[in-house]
Amino acid sequence: MHKLMLLSICAMLTALTSLQAQEVISGTVRNSVTKEVIPAVSVVAKNTPNGDYSSDQGHFRFTTKSKFPVTLVFSSLGFKTKEIEISSAKPLQVELTPTTILGTEVVVSASRNVQRKIESPVTIERIDNKDIINSPQTNYYNMLQGLKGVDITTSSLTFTTITTRGFNTSGNTNFTQIVDGMDNSAPGLNFPLGAAIGLTELDVDNLEVLSGASSALYGSRGLNGTLVMTGKDPFKYQGLSVQITQGVNHVKKGKGNDPMGPQPYYDWTLRWAKKVNEKLAFKFNLQYTMAKEWMANDTSNTNGPGSRYTDPNYNGVNSYGSKTSVDINPFLQAALAGDPSLAPIIDPLLEKPSNYVSRTGYAEYGYLSDEAKLLKLNAEVRYKIKPKLEAIISGTYGQGNSVYSNDTRYALTNFRLGQYRVELKAEHWFLRGYTSRENSGNTIIASPTAQLLNEAWKPSFDPSTMDGWYPQYTGALLQALATGSSLNDAHLAARSFADQGRPAAGSARFNHLKDSIAGIPTSRGGTLFQDRSKLYNAEFQYNLSHFIKVIDVIAGLNYRLFRLDSKGTLFPDTDGPIDVAEYSAYAHLAKKLIDNKLRLGAAFRYDKNTLFSKPRITSRLSGVVEVAKENFLRFSYQNAYSFPSNIQSLQSTLVDYNSFASGGSARLLYGEYGFDKYPAYTLTSVQEYQQSNDPSKLEKFRLSDIKPQSVDAFELGYSALISNVVLIDVLGYYSTWKNFIGYVNVANTPGTEDVTAFKDRSKYIAYNIAYNGAETVNTYGYAASVSVDLSRNFGAKANFSSDFLKNRNNSQINNFNTPNWKFNVEFGNSGFGKQQKLSFNTSLRYKPAYFYSIGFGSGTIPANVVLDAQFSYKLIKAHSKIKIGATNLTNRYYYTGFGSPAIGGVYYVTFAYNVF
Fold first, then answer.
1. How many CB atoms lie within 10 A of CB 426?
2. How many other β-carbons are positioned within 10 Å of the β-carbon of residue 329?
3. Confidence grade of residue 9 (pLDDT, cut at 50, 70, 90)
4. How many helices (H) and strands (E) does the chain have?
5. Pick from 418, 416, 463, 420: nearest CA to 441
6. Structural domain boundaries in the chain
7. Which residue in 79, 255, 497, 860 has the most C-beta neighbors within 10 A?
């Protein structure tokens, strides 16, 4: 008993001695110029793992077992690193001196390891949270369009797609978006949903854009680049932050054909992060955006010259329902057979081989919802099992309305996407698992839904009654001609007569019909997608450099499972979900030579997709040499590939161009198209045959199994920091694409090989098919950027980029949608006046006119100049900021994609609390 008591007392004394050895270090960090507190400053006891980050109030506090004196190291981007030796636990008051950040930015995505951006072996662009705070754009995603070599397509207010190196389109499956280590693509559709789900405005630590090929590090679909987004660590960025933006868009009705008047714009963001103790921290993020949508309103006629008032077969780019088009010659012939006295009127019309007339379409405004809404939620918990071993659990959820363009406009109404992650993260390794789950909500497919709606209120032709829209149109046309009307006026009168009873857009009957059709799955003759696909991903990575001293080695394994679940509306999964798996292994090696003046790197990746028999092996070789102090010459060779998207692989695609004249329906076909029995012809040749009645115009299209595409890219670049005030970067690249995947519109006549069936649009079906072009495609270009520190917190940036396509395969829709050159300029000041309370920033973007082609159609995007600007004022005691700004300040409406809306100005006021 006495021994037990003695042992207990010894244990208590030992514990007390241990506690006494724990020194508590605390204090506050401020800006030496403005005297503001500085958050997120790293404070570390030198040569120990002990440290802390300053809170939103500038406070830090941690314990250390080190004996006094202790040297503390204070570091933060934008401030000079400072070391202080302390000899007691007295609270500190520390001031850091602001300094230029040119040449000091670090990146991770270029080699999966931390390195200075200026020394990166490949072209990479970076935006951090301070850039976002000073930006005039209303959201961080739109800032990306000002970066060197980046292209965007804005399909709607909440759906923006980015890319690099020229292949630009809405819903780009060849661009990878990584958010906190998770692939942000929709599991079924395989393209990123932009900012629709991911980081909220206040939770962005940094964004890194790798230009061009990046498959060796990030896998399939990294041909056009990769965006790596990193959220804020709750141990580092603490406290409550709120940002409220109130604005207005559509400020001038009629300008740029904008059908609306001024409309409110709201964006509310909240972030709360707390370090509970030295082991546990959490964060919660919420962002809600609501505004009136930009509506696409291109009235150009896709069927040739003329307008809705001069061409009976008018089909506007953004006119939905007018794709239904029928040759009325059979109705004219029937009328002549019934009344030969009409010969003087009808015979001149029948001299033409065909007289196509389209149904009356609906404009996008009033047809698709103009309610742009986006809700993003995120929660994360981090626990430090050891000082250098952390467990992370996070969940992200996005829901809202958006619109994107492809072969038509798709209104994603109440779509939902969630991502959920668990991760163990150590100093040299991580083990990560996550799942992505999508719900397509109530998606409106603009064109076929409108075509079916027209059939619902009045069939194009009802064989049982020999009545319908086209017979009525033909009868009214003949009556108007008989009374002396001109042919054009007769067509207008005939349309007006046939359209009697047509429900107006937005009316109760219109909405009932639209909602009914859009609520029926495509597998049952409606236009509803029921995509509930899921993605499961597991990844392990280890940095072996502390084991292997002669060379830096990073290696990893990745397993990915797509569970495709569309109930037969997108995929051939009517009998249950389809599983598609990908297996990957990768390694990155790096070596420093010649006193660290030369850095060589190599990356290799092995990928296997269960839909394809052969694996893919990709590689990257790179070299960076410091030719003079802070002058770096880089060279890289990269091979990238892309397995076809799940839809392309399964050859599932929307039936398009269906006339619905005989009760046809928009539907999704997959598997066997019957092309082995009923050959496919290019749709353009079918249309030429219809106009000329010459069968020799028909051109067969040979289909084969789709294969992965690949690109070999070479890049030479140069970066330099001059006198610590000028940072320049120049580059040139050349790429060779093999098995390039493009699209073509084809048609066949199921049930018959008689090509005369192509005269009747109710007897053939048209498809948009992905296929590999036989030609080798080349792209090349060059770019340059310069950033200048003008002192006193003034700064200027400018960049220029150019992209070209050689050996264009004109039989494919290849999505190379970019001007041959473009430039961006930025000028601003991050703090001037008393206590540097004032700041401003401006950016200007210029693009000349360029050609844009997608499945929707093609046309010229006019040249545009866009000016954004903001002016800010700090309320230091309130720890707040007020920003007044505008995107597209001049309100000169501009386009970024064919069939997409014109973008006008947004004028706003932002109040931000605890956002610095």
1. 14
2. 18
3. very low
4. 12, 50
5. 416
6. 22-96, 652-705+741-774
7. 79
